[in-house]
Specification:
It is built from 11 helices and 15 strands. It is an alpha/beta fold.
């Protein structure tokens, strides 16, 4: 099987290409990225420079069978910034995503595995109970990220109906963390003002306990194993991906040996909105609104149909992220460049 991975040099992409290349059933892995990494090699992976934007690379030619028994496309490419220009992220994420889907149809690929997200889901039940893959995917309208993920879910509804011979899989993971993604995630969400060297046990005295904040997490390498299984197994449809336990501010405080101070969600949002308007942080306040409304996920379907079980707990995934943040870790790819990349890395994808 030939597998093409878009967005192959990012947090999820670097883990997915490694998982695929290590599987003997996969004969060729092509990693598509805006900028081909220099000095970062994965045995069995061929890097190709290109992008999914309208007017970009020849995706149909890239997805062609070329003598392989089967072809799969794993679509991970995503632009998180700039949040002050949602038209730019829509151009790449939505129009680029549609372009990938339609290229899959024209190239007649066997399987499309799309990186959706917990962010595609509508706000969770009022009682905080968990949801399965049948929960509505209308997102939260106040955040570009959730709007875009939800739009692609709607597009895929019609796309699947029109291309029933193609397996279409939608992966809906919780937040993905690993050591080498920490520097990228700091640049994307917190910006250059976060004193990353000080985010270590004993040096953070208090954490604001934002009312209602709780979330699920997963180590990126574990998510990659689910993607690999979805490529090779005869499955279709959506899969939730999450590890236990559910995390909150108290969980983070225990990892950092810090205490918590209550902070109303409204006050947290006001502070974030002010910092965002002054361009001190890249994360928009609408993203906090969305996070506070995310449902908690059941991941039973992935365990049953993909034979998938996370090897790390959510706490271990978060600890790995904090360790990477403290040390400024990264990988030798443009998105995952370590902390030495500095503020210039803020808008890079």
């Amino acid at each position: 099987m030939k597998v093409v991975v878009t967005g192959a040099t990012g947090n999820a992409g670097t883990s997915v290409v490694r998982a695929l290349a290590a599987d003997p059933a996969v004969t060729e892995v092509i990693g598509l990225a805006r900028r081909v990494p220099r000095g970062y090699e994965v045995p069995g992976v061929r890097w190709v420079a290109g992008n999914v934007d309208p007017g970009g690379s020849d995706l149909v030619g890239l997805f062609a069978r070329d003598g392989a028994d089967g072809v799969a496309v794993v679509h991970l490419a995503w632009k998180f910034q700039p949040t002050h220009d949602p038209l730019e992220t829509w151009h790449t994420n939505v129009l680029g995503g549609v372009r990938v889907f339609e290229a899959c149809a024209r190239a007649r690929v066997d399987a499309l595995v799309h990186a959706s997200s917990v962010g595609a889901y509508s706000p969770g039940p009022a009682d905080g109970s968990r949801v399965d893959e049948t929960w509505p995917t209308h997102g939260w309208p106040g955040a570009a990220y959730t709007r875009e993920k939800a739009y692609l879910e709607r597009y895929l509804d019609g796309f699947e109906a029109a291309h029933q011979s193609m397996r279409v899989v939608r992966m809906r993971p919780a937040f993905l963390f690993k050591e080498t993604s920490a520097s990228e995630q700091r640049r994307i969400f917190a910006g250059p003002l976060l004193p990353w060297k000080l985010v270590r046990p004993g040096l953070v005295p208090v954490l604001p306990d934002v009312g209602g904040l709780r979330f699920q997490a997963l180590h990126t390498d574990d998510a990659a194993e689910a993607y690999r299984a979805a490529v090779l197994r005869p499955v279709r449809g959506p899969f939730n991906l999450a590890a236990e336990p559910v995390l909150d501010t108290a969980s983070l405080a225990r990892l950092l040996h810090a205490r918590t101070v209550p902070l109303p969600a409204g006050a947290a949002r006001a502070a974030l909105a002010a910092a965002w308007r002054m361009r001190l942080v890249p994360a928009a306040p609408g993203l906090l609104d969305a996070v506070l409304r995310l449902p908690l996920l059941y991941a039973d379907r992935a365990r049953l149909e993909l034979d998938w079980t996370p090897t790390r707990t959510a706490t271990e995934a978060m600890a790995a992220f904090l360790e990477g943040l403290q040390s400024g870790q990264g990988l030798d790819t443009p998105p995952l460049a370590g902390a030495a990349a500095g503020p210039a890395g803020l808008h890079r994808r």
